[in-house]
């Protein structure tokens, strides 16, 4: 919409603004795999002439921290797949973005079109779900897996749910392995059940 205003007004857009807009179009359409019609291509074509394409590539391929690589390793090692849905538990994480990146990475596995990665972050189970198949909605899977009272946000492509541990956050180290096992089993079951009924 912003691009249409700039173009209709006959303005020469600022390079920083067009770079941000073009990056937004590419990210929002998942590199045009989910384009919403001819207008997405038309807007991108207009912006392309003014954008800093090198900057867009840098934004698309940011550096990855060692902690994130460790979470990616755990996501791959702990994955379970049913049909085209992959689910993985990565344990305790220091950053929610590592969960998101891990879910994106699981989508690269052959035959996987929907992925969910979960872990513990600040006494909360955080679940990041990604869906590439237009017949599947990430937010609907999370809504189906967890109570409506849980904090869920996102859209068909990407969604996140947060389930507080509540009283279970007080479990001492002697029972931590049991709690981890319960979290793993119950979260996987909820996710697979929601996927199969979506």
Explain how this protein is built.
The chain is an alpha+beta fold. The protein folds into two domains: 2-60, no CATH class; 66-196, Diaminopimelate Epimerase, Chain A, domain 1. It has eight helices and six strands, in the order H-H-H-H-H-E-E-H-E-E-H-E-E-H. It has a six-stranded mixed β-sheet with strand order 1-2-3-4-6-5, sandwiched between helices. Helix 2 (15-28) packs across helix 4 (53-60) and helix 5 crosses helix 6 (96-106). The radius of gyration is 19 Å and the shape is elongated. The mean pLDDT is 87.
Can you describe this structure in just a few lines?
With 198 residues, this protein is an alpha+beta fold. Helices cover 47% and strands 19% of the residues. The protein has two domains: 2-60, no CATH class; 66-196, Diaminopimelate Epimerase, Chain A, domain 1, CATH 3.10.310.40.
Taken in chain order, the helices and strands follow as HHHHHEEHEEHEEH
Please compute the radius of gyration using only Cα atoms: 19 Å
| CATH A-level architecture of the largest domain | Roll
Number of domains as seen in the coordinates: 2
Low-pLDDT segments, ≥5 res: none
Share of residues in strands: 15-25%
Derived from helix and strand composition plus strand pairing, the structural class reads: alpha+beta
Euclidean distance between termini CA atoms: 32 Å
Shape: elongated
Q: What is the total tally of β strands? A: 6
Largest sheet descriptor: 6 strands, mixed
Describe the strand arrangement of the main beta sheet, using strand numbers.
Answer: 1-2-3-4-6-5
CATH topology of the largest domain: Diaminopimelate Epimerase, Chain A, domain 1
Q: Helix proportion of residues, in percent?
A: 40-55%
């Amino acid at each position: 919409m912003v691009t249409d205003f700039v173009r209709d007004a006959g303005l020469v857009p600022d390079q920083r603004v067009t770079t941000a807009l073009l990056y937004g179009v590419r990210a929002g359409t998942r590199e045009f795999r989910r384009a919403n019609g001819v207008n997405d291509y038309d807007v991108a074509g207009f912006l392309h002439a003014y954008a800093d394409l090198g900057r867009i590539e840098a934004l698309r391929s940011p550096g990855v921290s060692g902690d994130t690589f460790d979470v990616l390793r755990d996501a791959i090692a702990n994955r379970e797949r049913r049909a085209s849905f992959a689910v993985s538990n990565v344990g305790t994480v220091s950053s929610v973005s590592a969960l998101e990146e891990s879910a994106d990475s699981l989508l690269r596995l052959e035959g996987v079109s929907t992925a969910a990665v979960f872990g513990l972050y600040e006494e909360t189970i955080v679940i990041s779900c990604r869906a590439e198949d237009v017949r599947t909605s990430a937010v609907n899977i999370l809504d189906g897996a967890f109570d409506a009272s849980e904090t869920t946000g996102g859209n068909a492509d990407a969604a996140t749910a947060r389930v507080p541990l509540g009283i279970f956050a007080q479990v001492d180290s002697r029972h931590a392995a049991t709690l981890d096992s319960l979290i793993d089993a119950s979260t996987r079951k909820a996710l697979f059940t929601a996927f199969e009924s979506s």
